């Protein structure tokens, strides 16, 4: 079962994906879980940068990865959740 942070990250990613898809494609989108590969959602490096920006703003954190590093290190939704969780923990 996903925790609160995982649900928030999934919601952020889903919102970003839906904004880039038309209504038909968004309606047929499968459920997003922490195991979902970012590439399977059509998220490219630019889309990932947008998602990371949204998460930085929501949590007051800075994800210190350039786009190519992020793309190679964050392949699925769970990877994004863990990266954000680690940065939040450092802020406490």
TrEMBL record:
Which residue intervals define the domain Carrier in the entry? 8-88
Question: Which keywords does UniProt give here?
Answer: Phosphopantetheine, Phosphoprotein
Name of the protein in question: Acyl carrier protein
């Amino acid at each position: 079962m996903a925790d609160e942070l995982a649900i928030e990250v999934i919601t952020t990613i889903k919102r970003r994906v839906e904004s880039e898809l038309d209504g038909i494609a968004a309606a047929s989108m499968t459920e997003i879980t922490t195991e979902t590969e970012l590439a399977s959602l059509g998220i490219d490096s630019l889309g990932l940068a947008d998602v990371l920006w949204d998460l930085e703003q929501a949590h007051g954190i800075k994800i210190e990865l350039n786009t190519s590093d992020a793309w190679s290190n964050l392949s699925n939704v769970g990877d994004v959740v863990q990266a954000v969780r680690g940065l939040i923990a450092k802020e406490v």
